[in-house]
Write a structure and sequence with these properties.
9% strand, 51% helix, elongated, 324 residues, two-stranded antiparallel sheet, four-stranded antiparallel beta sheet, single chain, alpha+beta, 6 strands
Length: 324
């Protein structure tokens, strides 16, 4: 890939940021990447490529937080010579959730986008900035992405992080990792406001966490605020069905929409897909107090995830692209 000029930084050596020409093509016009790279240059100076090579970014998504997966994650990272140098809690909204995966969700069904909104907005997300202490030749982002395991549960190695997290399905994935240095640059800028972003860039530059970072990790691990949720699809469907049946008994005028919901749930138990957006609209008309994780796990388990024949604008880097 050729060097190209971004902003006022002079030529950009894309080979240190991504090995995917399609990603370079889109990111050189991406506002979050452009601003993020400028801020990295300011924070790291002549060490920019070195710092980005040794750094990685991981998100513990709301489902990972609710099910208390941080200890498993930290133990895995330590076993593979990664240390946490920065941590920040934030909440996704509809726009940040769509923008983060804008180049991948080109294949996602509209039902998948709707369910993904539920999962991402169900609680806080924890961003972890990491430093690799290993001797691997590839960037830390690339190395961590290989360790986390494949998205397809049937293809996951038993010792991959995704396998250890025991995620129930593709949509409740518990974690996200930046794939390459370019993605770290873009995602940090996209998800963090200026003050926490500049603080985290300082942590990446120094390579050690602050007391505030350590306190946040301790809070997530030990305060009792996080964890305790069990993502059990069958139990969640039963609870929703019971609430719907109770509402129909209380409100005979709602018998018709309640019956539709119960019929859809019965079909899902037989392996049929839910027409999620219609299902959610009818369910909403019953005005029930549903547990958000019951809704999330049922939706994540019973929808058509991808549009037939659709593709990602930007896929995953080829495993050997950083070895040359």
């Amino acid at each position: 890939m050729n060097e190209r000029v971004i902003g006022d930084m002079g030529p950009t050596n894309w080979s240190t940021l991504t090995r995917m020409p399609v990603k370079a093509y889109h990111y050189e016009l991406d506002t979050c990447f452009r601003e993020g790279l400028s801020e990295c240059q300011e924070a790291f100076g002549g060490r920019r490529d070195e710092v980005l090579h040794r750094s990685a970014l991981m998100l513990v998504k709301p489902d990972g937080m609710a099910t208390g997966k941080l200890k498993v994650i930290l133990d895995f990272l330590a076993d593979h010579d990664f240390s946490v140098v920065g941590a920040e809690m934030f909440h996704f909204n509809r726009h940040t959730g769509r923008e983060l995966w804008r180049h991948q969700h080109t294949l996602a069904s509209l039902d998948r986008l709707a369910v993904n909104d539920i999962v991402l907005q169900a609680g806080p997300t924890l961003m972890l900035l990491l430093r690799s202490h290993g001797s691997h030749a590839v960037p830390a982002t690339v190395h961590l992405s290989s360790l986390k395991g494949k998205a397809d549960i049937s293809q996951q190695a038993a010792d991959s992080l995704r396998s250890l997290l025991k995620r129930p399905n593709r949509l409740c994935s518990m974690i996200h990792c930046a794939d390459e240095p370019a993605d770290l640059v873009r995602e940090l800028n996209l998800l963090m406001d200026p003050a926490p972003r500049h603080r985290l860039l300082g942590r990446l530059a120094e390579g050690v966490p602050s007391p505030a970072d350590e306190e946040l990790l301790d809070r997530v691990l030990h305060s009792g605020e996080f964890g305790g949720v069990i993502l059990d699809r069958a139990a969640a469907a039963r609870r929703i069905d019971e609430l719907v049946a109770e509402r129909a008994a209380e409100r005979p005028d709602l018998a018709e929409p309640a019956g539709r919901i119960r019929a859809w749930l019965e079909g899902a138990e037989r392996g049929e897909l839910l027409p999620w957006r219609e299902f959610a609209s009818v369910l909403g008309s019953l005005e029930l107090k549903l547990d958000v994780w019951d809704l999330a796990i049922v939706g994540a388990s019973h929808i058509q995830e991808d549009e037939p024949g659709a593709i990602k604008v930007i896929g995953n880097p080829a495993p050997d692209s950083w070895l040359t």
